[in-house]
Amino acid sequence: MAATEQNNATAARKLFVLRAGPRLFAVFTEEVEATAADLTPTPLPFAPHAVLGVVSLRGRIRTVIDPSRLPDDVGPAAPDAAQSGPDSPDSDPSNYDSSSSAQTSPRLFVALAGDEQLALACDGAEEQFEIAHARIKPPADPRSHTRGTVERHGSLITLLDPALLFDAATRGIERRRKRS
User: Which residue from 81, 90, 151, 152 has the highest number of Cβ atoms inside 10 Å of its Cβ?
Assistant: First the structure.
């Protein structure tokens, strides 16, 4: 192994950990631009199940994604997109289901840095910690929107890749409606 590959494998990066429903997710701390509490997303018509709407955060309109509703190789997939629509309970962000037994609104929004203008909806943030790249278990599917998983204190944390989140949220959804 070359010296630079070994340094990359052992280099520690800090994770920003958030809780959405019963699951833990993370992004690297340098990918977090800001956080805000108690916002109400404005719903978007015909939005996919994982998109709760949009919010204004730090002077930018951000698309709000619920990471617990994204399909992945670690947890349950989001319901079929055909079930979500303007008349569906899932199109209303007040129906955010963080525990599958109670309907609550997300309490924390995490604005992600980058051109995608995304925010993650979550129930709260957990303690940040550093981790060596070598401890990140890669995803089973190389096309995944995750960078892999990390185990800490008996909990599995899904490390998200912000550059792939919007595509994951809209996968299989026609982005523009045909005009008749």
Answer: 90
* Cβ-proximal residues to 37 (8 Å cutoff; 6+ apart), any chain: 107, 108, 109
pLDDT tens digit string along 44-90? 999 999 999 999 998 899 999 999 999 755 444 434 333 334 344 44
180, containing H or E segment: none
With CA atoms as reference, report the closest residue to 163 among 38, 27, 35.
27
- CA–CA dist 68, 158 (Å, integer): 10
For residue 72, the 8-state DSSP code is -
- Length, in residues, of the chain: 180
In DSSP terms, which residues pair with 28 in a beta bridge?
15
| DSSP reduced 3-state for 178 | coil
Sign of CA dihedral 94, 64, 32, 72: positive
